[in-house]
Specification:
Layout: H1 12-44, E1 46-47, E2 56-57, E3 66-72, H2 85-90, E4 99-101, E5 107-109, E6 112-119, E7 122-127, H3 141-154, H4 160-163, E8 166-173, E9 176-181, H5 199-202, E10 220-225, E11 229-234, E12 250-256, H6 259-267, E13 273-276, H7 281-285, E14 290-305, H8 315-324, H9 327-333, E15 339-341, H10 364-373, E16 377-379, E17 382-387, E18 390-393, E19 395-401, H11 405-421, E20 424-430, H12 432-441, E21 446-452, H13 460-463, H14 474-485, H15 489-506, E22 509-522, E23 525-526, E24 544-545
Parallel strand pairs: 3-12, 19-20, 19-21
Antiparallel strand pairs: 1-2, 4-5, 6-7, 7-9, 8-9, 10-11, 11-12, 13-22, 14-21, 14-22, 15-22, 16-17, 17-18, 23-24
Length: 546
């Protein structure tokens, strides 16, 4: 079948006329498109930049410049008196330390301009000039000296541990101070994060009885303080305001009787931030209508293996124990997925081990092979081996504080898992007093314990001399001494990597899990949220409400 194509036929004059019509239509369409584009960019707030590129966007932000916080069980604004965790978080906005800690747990200058370790027990610190207290008086090294001596004198401050080993404070001049320690302290600079208070305001006074509004050097100052509210206002005379000019002008801190009231106020939208390690937080604030950041806390639970025990001193046995325990299962079954697997004392975000890859540890088949290679025989459901002419079996006691219900439940799960491999476990529940005695004397086989990690990357207490696990390794001691001498960040990271590799091989401890912390922000809050255990208010200057 033939196909036919229809071709339009024009007379000569009609053809010219048709071309003109087409041209007119094309020009109309082009002009119409240009008008549409202009209207579009006008409506979306986009304008041409100097090079003619249509990608400069102007957006009007409805910025609310007050921020609302809540505190339960309030005790004091004074940073050396308060025991309130939320007040401790807020305090650096008012009272600044010599040194602060970054999101990756690096040390950075705050009131200190520079610092140096001049000998094993001596530090020199130069403070920033032209810093003013909020009453417009000068901040000097006399304030630093007064603060240290006041903490040592009162002995009640949460910062007493930071300064207890400072033997002498020498004011060299108004901006230079020298600290002499009673002994060498690895990473002592991490101790210099205590807030500095005004000598002029507190000298000769009892701080606990003082009702006057305290002054600081920080970005915000206290402008109101009564039974229901603390109000902070932006310190327009802050020395670094040009570099860090905050959006938030006022912070309203409502004082509540308990955390239940704080949760309820957050749920109703009356406060903008809640910070908690309560595993059941969603029961109080729900699961929607807010933003949140979850991160690893400083509560590190672990098993300590007594490396002087005649069986546990064998590294192969410790490796087999590590391979036999499924930590993910423990967190899922016992802790309801409200914790993180923890490998090491510093794995809560410290920059020195941040890039280290951790090997998978759980494999019960590998555990059995390790024991076989070490000369252990599996017969009648138990492992046995002749040591010094005596037949020994893999049968250990895990010591745990009888008052810690969570650890007892975890110990029971560990017992089940180890018995699958053929390692027999008994759970030794002891009183708090007995537990403390065992801790002090290091008398146990396997100890289930935990620690509230400091910010410092110091590892001597875990791996140095007289450590809890009775672990002795000359290579490890040499690495720890080397770390304390290194100033280069890259070299320090490299040495920590060697420490971690040796730790993974030797297994003096088995890290189990770390607690989960939640920072929940109201849906109207805008900004970058990067909380850690030191502060939940990083980049606060860029925050605002909308």
């Amino acid at each position: 079948m033939k196909e036919y194509f229809c071709v339009p036929y024009y007379k000569e004059g009609e053809k010219m006329k048709g071309n003109k019509v087409k041209l007119f239509l094309c020009l109309s369409i082009v002009l119409g498109l240009i008008v549409i584009v202009i209207i579009y960019f006008a409506c979306t707030g986009k304008k041409q930049d100097k090079q003619g590129n249509l990608d400069v966007k102007y957006e009007k932000i409805n910025m609310i410049t007050n921020f609302r916080l809540g505190i339960s069980s309030f005790d004091s604004i004074n940073p050396h008196i308060t025991k309130n965790k939320d007040m401790i978080q807020i305090a650096p906005l008012i009272f600044e330390p010599l040194l602060a800690i970054t999101q990756e747990y690096k040390i950075q200058n705050c009131l200190a301009k520079e610092w140096s370790k001049v000998s094993e027990k001596s530090y020199v610190i130069k403070i920033k000039e032209k810093v003013k207290w909020q009453d417009n008086s000068d901040f000097t090294t006399e304030d630093v000296k007064f603060t240290i001596e006041q903490i040592q004198k009162d002995k009640k401050s949460i910062y007493l541990e930071n300064v207890k080993d400072i033997k002498k404070v020498e004011v060299v001049d108004s901006y230079t101070i020298r600290l002499e320690l009673s002994k060498e302290i690895p990473f002592f600079e991490y101790q210099l994060i205590f807030p500095i208070i005004s000598k002029k305001q507190y000298e000769g006074k009892q701080m606990e009885k003082s009702k006057e509004i305290p002054i600081g050097t920080g970005k915000y100052k206290v402008t109101r303080w009564d039974k229901e509210i603390i109000e902070l206002s932006k310190n327009e005379n802050w020395y670094d305001i040009e570099n860090e000019n905050a959006n938030i002008k006022t912070i309203i801190i409502s004082l509540y009787k308990d955390m239940g009231e704080v949760y309820n106020s957050f749920r109703l939208g009356n406060i903008d931030l809640v910070h908690t390690s309560n595993k059941q937080y969603e029961e109080y604030i729900g699961s929607m209508g807010y933003q949140k950041k979850e991160y690893q806390g400083r509560e590190f639970d672990y098993l300590a293996f007594n490396c002087q025990n005649d069986i546990l001193q064998d590294v192969k046995v410790r490796q087999a124990l590590q391979k036999s325990i499924n930590r993910e299962k423990i967190i899922s079954i016992v802790l309801e997925d409200k914790a993180y697997v923890a490998n090491f004392p510093l794995d809560y975000g410290n920059y020195l081990i941040k890039d280290i890859e951790w090997k998978e540890t759980f494999s019960q088949e590998e555990a059995k092979e390790i024991l076989k290679e070490a000369g252990w025989r599996f017969e009648y459901g138990i492992w046995s081996k002749e040591i010094n002419g005596i037949t020994r079996t893999l049968n250990f006691a895990i010591t745990v504080n009888q008052d810690n219900e969570q650890r007892i439940k975890v110990a029971e799960e560990i017992k089940k898992q180890l018995e699958v491999v053929g390692i027999q476990i008994s759970i030794k529940k002891v009183s708090k007093a007995e537990y403390q005695r065992i801790l002090k004397n290091h008398q146990y086989e396997i100890l289930f314990t935990g620690v509230y990690n400091g910010y410092s990357p110091e590892l001597d207490s875990f791996l140095g001399e007289e450590n809890l696990a009775n672990y002795q390794n000359q290579e490890m001691l040499s690495l720890l001494k080397e770390i304390n001498r290194i100033s280069s960040e890259d070299l320090k990271k490299e040495t920590y990597k060697k420490v971690v590799e040796l730790y993974q091989k030797e297994v003096p401890y088995l890290g189990l899990y770390r607690n989960q912390v939640i920072a929940a922000y109201g849906h109207s809050v805008r900004g970058e949220f990067t909380p850690n255990n030191y502060s939940i208010l990083y980049q606060f200057s860029q925050w605002y409400r909308q």
